[in-house]
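User: Assemble these into one structure.

Assistant: Restating your components, then the assembled model:
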Amino acid sequence: MRNRFADVFYDLGLKDDRLCMVVADISPAGSITKFREEFPDRFINTGVAEQVMIGLAAGMALRGLRPFAYTIATFTLYRPFEFIRDDLCYQNLPVTIVGIGGGVTYSTLGGTHHAMEDIAIASALPNMSVIAPIDPDETEAATRWCATQTRGPVYLRLGKAGEPNLSKGAETEWEFGKPRLLQRGQDVLVLTYGPMSGVAWDVVCGLRDKGQSVSFVSCHTLKPLDTDTILDLIRAHGRTVIIEETTPEGSLGQSVKASLYNSGIDKPVDTFSLKNEFIHSYGSHTELLAVHGLSAPAILEKLGA
Amino acid sequence: MEARRSNSFDASAAFDRCKHYRRRVLDVSQKVGALHVAPAFSCTEIVDSIYNHLMSGNGTVAGEDIFLMSKGHACILQYIILAECGVLTEEDLDRYCTPDGRLGTHPDYGTPGVAAATGSLGHGMGIAAGIAKAEQLLNRGSTTFLLLSDGECQEGSTWEAAMTAANLGLDNLVAFVDYNDFSGLERMSEGHKAFHPLADKFRSFGWDVEEVDGHNSSEIVRAVEARSGSKPFIAVCQTVKGKGVSYMENVPIWHYRSPNPEEYAQAIREIESTTL
C-alpha cells in the first residue's frame, strides 16, 4: 500500500503542481524519492515535528495548495491531534493526513507505535473523512480521490508493505463512501477494511470450506459510513461477521450494531476487533493480530465453523 | 503590490488612530461585557502599523499581503480595523458576540479579512509558515504578517514552526511578539524566568530579530522596513498589557474582566486624555 501510494502520488504530482508532500522525518517509500528530487519545493520535511507538519499543511491549503501530511499513523494523528482538529477540521481544509501503519502494523515496535484507536479518534472529528483501503488497488483509487476532492480533511490509513490485492476482479469500481462487494454469496456477509483484510479473507475461505456461501465486502470508507447499504446487505444474509483492526470503542462493529438497533433489524452480527488493551508482545503483524484474537482459526472457532 | 513606505509614515496620524481604536474596542466590547480588552490594548500600535502602513491591501485579495492574528483573543482590535477598512460593517460590530452576529472573541475562518481561525495558542506560527511557503510556491510576492503573544511562545509548537520557517527560508514572513510579560496567570519574568531573553531564542533559530518599543509606531515600522529580507523576521515588541488605562495596566485580571459602567467611563476619559 505504501509503495502504491507513493507511486500514485508521484504520478498525480507530475500533472498537478498544487500537490505537496509534508512529512515529519519519514521516508515515504517508492517513487516519493523521485518526487522529492524533481520537486524539492513541494516536498517538505519538518523533521521530528508533527504539530508544524499539520499547521504548515493547513496554511498551504488556505492558499489553494493540496498538501498531504505523511508519517507513521500514531504521529500523524495522535501527536498533533488538536492541530488536526482546529487547523484542518474546524477550517474544513482539503488536506490528506496519511497514517502509515494503522492498527498494530508496526508489530515489533511496541505500543508507542501502534495506532489502535485511530479510526475512532479520526471519526469523532467533525468534517473529517476516514478511509482505510483494503489493498494496493484500493489505495491507488483512494489516493486519486484524495488528491482532487473538495469535501475537507481526510484521514487515509494505509498499510506498510506487502498487502495482497484482494479487490482484483471486484464487480464495482472503488467509490468514496460506498461499501464494495468484492465477492458475492448468500449465507454469510464478511465486512472488513484496512491492511489486515488478509485475515478476513482467510475467514471467508474457511467458511467456504465448510460449505457456506460468503459475501466479502470492503468497507473502505469508515466516515461517512453508508449504513443504508450495509443494512441492506445484512438483511440479505443469514449472518454477518465484521473483522477490523481497531479498538472496539468507536469501531465499525459498534456503529453497525447501533444502526441495527435503531432500524429494528434482528439479525446476528459477530464483531471481531483489537482488544482495548495494550499488548506487551512482539512479532510479525499477523502474530500481533493473533495476540489480539484476530487470527482466522480463532475467528472461525468463535463462529463455530 | 507595493507596501507603503516609511517616508509616508505619519506618527501623529498613527497616534490618533490608535486612540480611536482603543475607544472603539471599549465601546464594542462594553455592549456585551466581552473580555480581552487588555490584550487588545497591548498590541494596538503593532496591529495599526501592520494594517495602516506595512501591509499592501487588507488581506482580502489574492496576491496581497496577509495578516494572521495568532493571539486570537485580541481580535476585537482586528475587527475594529477591518470595519474601518470597509471589510466588515458597523452592523457586524453591533452584533459582536451575539447570536445574530458572525464575530466572536476569537477569529473565525470564513470571516472576511481573517486569514485563519486562531484562538488556541501556538497554532499561528505553523499556519503562517504554511501560508508564506505557499505564497513562495505560487510566486505571488506577498508578505505574511503574524502577531504572536509572548504567552504562546511558551508552546512547543511555536518553536517547531520557528525552526521550520527558518529551515524553509521564509523571507516573506514578518512576525511580531506582543511581549507584555503577562500570561493569564502571572508576570512571565517572575514565573517563567527561563523564558527570557526571548529575542536571543529566535536569533538562534535563524531569524532576523529586532527589539522595539511596541507602543512606538515609528519604531515598529522602521524596524520592519529595515529588515534584511533574507530570513524570517521578528520584531520583539516590549508592550504594556492594558496600555492606556491606568487600572488595567499590568494587572492580570484584566485579561479576563470586563469593565463595569464606572470603570468604562474612567477608561474612556483616560484614553481621550492621552497625548503624543
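The two ends of chain B are 31 Å apart (CA to CA).
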